[in-house]
Every structure is written in structure tokens, then in C-alpha cells.
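Exam revision sheet. Question 4 asks you to relate a sequence to its structure. Input first:
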Amino acid sequence: MVLLPSDRFQVAPRYATLWFIARGCCLALIAWSCAVAGSQLRGAEPARIQFREVAVGAGIDFVHHSPFSEKRHTHLVMGSGIGWIDYDGDGRPDLFVANGHVHDRLRELARDEPFAQLAQCFKNEAGRRFRDVSATAGPYFNEAHLGRGCAVADFDSDGRLDLAVLQLNGPVTLLHNETQSANNTLQVELIGAASNRDAIGAMLTVQLKQRRLLRCRTGSSSYLSCDEARMSFGVGTADNVERLDVRWPSGRRESWSNVKVNTLQRFVEGTGSPQPDRE
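Answer key, C-alpha cells:
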């Protein structure tokens, strides 16, 4: 037995050597445990996070001008609503931008840009760049608006994604997608069980013969806006989805095979084929 010294207890002389040896062993054991724990926490070297600016090369050359840009006032450099919408079902997300200045006294500031502005539509060309097709996208794009937020949804279930645009001091605009395309689509609704009911945070992978498409189920999209819960995939001319993989927020991985296109599919967590965890 080892007695620890205190005001009330004193170590007997014959136990003094034993106490110091035990104390040294305890300190050595603590130091070794800390070293092991530290090495486990460190593990492998973290991946180097790196981003490269490619907007100009991709055709996105919009510049938001502010009358006080050198002072960097947040309310003067805030962007407008943005929506990712595959309007022709080719499997490549196109870009919609709802524009409208945030400063309503531009003339007093001797600025030339208008308060109401034109919306923009950019076509995704082979996943390499975007082309501005606003001039031919419909009458709405030829009129100035005070655009703010936007939401993407197939409101009439015709397989084509439509747009709802929030206007400042004006009614909501509903843009019906009337694009003529022979491409096929797939709409997916996820229902969580162990995960949250709306499956927010789930990752979907649609496996086609030549490529795969990825989507993340999010709970919001643009300013004061939220896309519909159904997730839409343009699959081009593919007549069948070989496999659809879901990684649920709970961590469960499942898959469904031979999914029909041009349909709305509802997948409930726990009803698919289990898939092994992957690092």
C-alpha cells in the first residue's frame, strides 16, 4: 500500500523509497498515455485544401459595382438570388441569376447602373463553361426587375424545372419552363427514418452508363427561398438509371437498381439494398 503525503498523513521512512518509485512509474505512464492519444488524434497529415479562381474562364464575368466599393459596405455588395436549374434535362446544371440593385438612390450617388436590372440565364456547355442565353430565354429576361430570391420546382409535374422569383415590392414571378427537349429526367423524393424526415444532408448518386450525377439534399437555396423537396436529375438520352445510391444523414448507405426515368421515385430510408461503408 502506498500512502500519499498530506498534512494529516506522513509516509513511513521504510516506504519512502517505494513511494517515489511508484510515483515515478505513474508519471511515466501518464506521459506515455498522452503521447499515444496525441498520435491517434494527429493520424495522417490533413489534406491540403486548395481552390483556383475559374469564373472568367467559365464565362461568368458579371461584376457587381458599388458606389462605395473601397469602403466595402456589406449592404452595397450583396448579391441577388441564384438558382441551379437543369432546364433542358441534359444532366448539367444551368444557372439563373435574379438581379436588382440594393441601393435605391443611385442618381444621388452619380451612379449609372439602374435600380431595377435584367435577370440572367447561363447555359452550361459540357461542364466547361457557361454561355449567357438570357436574350433568347423569354420576355421576362428582357424586362428589368428588382429580383431578390428564387426557388426551383417542377410545379406542374411535367418533368421540366420551373422558377419562382421573389421581387422587391412586387408580386412573385412564376416562370414556366417551356423548353423543347428530348432529354429524359428523374425525380427523387427521399424520406428519412433514422435520419431527419426530409433527409436534409443526404447525398445522392445517379449512376448512368457513361457518367454519374451527384446531388446533395439541402434545406435552403437562395435568399428567402427554398427549392422543392423533390430532387430532379436530367439524364439526357438515357432510358434507364443503372443504380441510385443514397448516403443518408444517419450514415446508412443504400442503393436501388434499374430505376425508370421520367418518373417520380420515393425512397424510404431502410428499404434499399445496404451498401458497405466507404472511407
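Marking note for examiners. The chain is about 10% helix and 30% strand.
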